[in-house]
Design brief:
homodimer, 198 residues, Dna Topoisomerase Vi A Subunit, Chain: A, domain 2, elongated, binds zinc ion
Amino acid sequence: MMPASLLDQLVDALRVLPGVGPKSAQRIVYQLLQRDREGAAKLARTLADALTQVKHCTRCNTFTEAEICERCLSPQRDPAQLCVVEMPSDLAVMESTQAYRGLYYVLMGRISPLDGVGPRELQLDQLLARATDGLVEEVILATNFTNEGEATAHYLGEMLRARGLRVSRIARGVPVGGELEHTDLGTVAQAFAERRGW
Amino acid sequence: MMPASLLDQLVDALRVLPGVGPKSAQRIVYQLLQRDREGAAKLARTLADALTQVKHCTRCNTFTEAEICERCLSPQRDPAQLCVVEMPSDLAVMESTQAYRGLYYVLMGRISPLDGVGPRELQLDQLLARATDGLVEEVILATNFTNEGEATAHYLGEMLRARGLRVSRIARGVPVGGELEHTDLGTVAQAFAERRGW
Ligand SMILES: [Zn+2]
Ligand SMILES: [Zn+2]
């Protein structure tokens, strides 16, 4: 068998992108090599840089280029409140509501047995260590109201209450089955205000 | 203003991909950095390699890593026939029909005034030089049957006939408005067999 050409390798490598099949990978290759080589070069460079330089904040677990992210270092945030979200995009939604002044922990996922993601894969030890730093008084669970987000919230609630922490869940103002990222800010703000003991 | 973070730069760089907006770029970033760093690294590497090593065949203009591609060098192909297609994917469709044993010229586009692509942008001089090599007896126009593909075929027909070349056009078996890439092979093969003087 002949070694695959660079073009075939590139078509193959593009399949790493969500939703890209062989046909659209082919189209993307032509687009990149024929129409926008400069943009393509920038993409290759930025992606390589991000892979080496972007890591996880040792406190909140979100993506950052620093050891500890700016938000975690800010003296303006209330260290007594810790809001747990699934993804950085959920954190961004919470911030946009301007309803919250505490700190965050980003799970970078959710418990999802079908995808083989359990408590171990989510590295929940790290959340536990973070939540029991002696300053955190309340952990606010802001995972999505999907089945997986709810299961995650239940698991986290039990785990954190067992350590004597006060735990709350944002109110089910977010539609059942809905995701924070696709909910209007007002609803998310209200859901935060109406959080209940968990 | 703060310099954009590497993550923001990567979200921005991903916009070079066709159909990728800010939201899906964000999703792709999480997918790449969180779920498949190995695949992402391979993508960055392969894309950079392709950009430096993939060029155009000096004879048929398709993508290749060599000066002249394998097909153009093959003694098995009939040098008296030259089939002109818009894109490498169209060439692949023609080859799949196994109805053609001549050589190709790939325009890497089509005449499209709305996109600012005219004869000059398509570098048709190169096609003209290729078609007048003394060996080519017939040029078969296999551009798409879209408005732009038809306009391109008309232009090429006049240009090539003016040089005394015999020009044919694959038959309109391909549905009007249709593209080769989305046509079944039988129809494409028939369209080839029924090509007519142009
Ligand atoms: Zn942080
Ligand atoms: Zn060639």
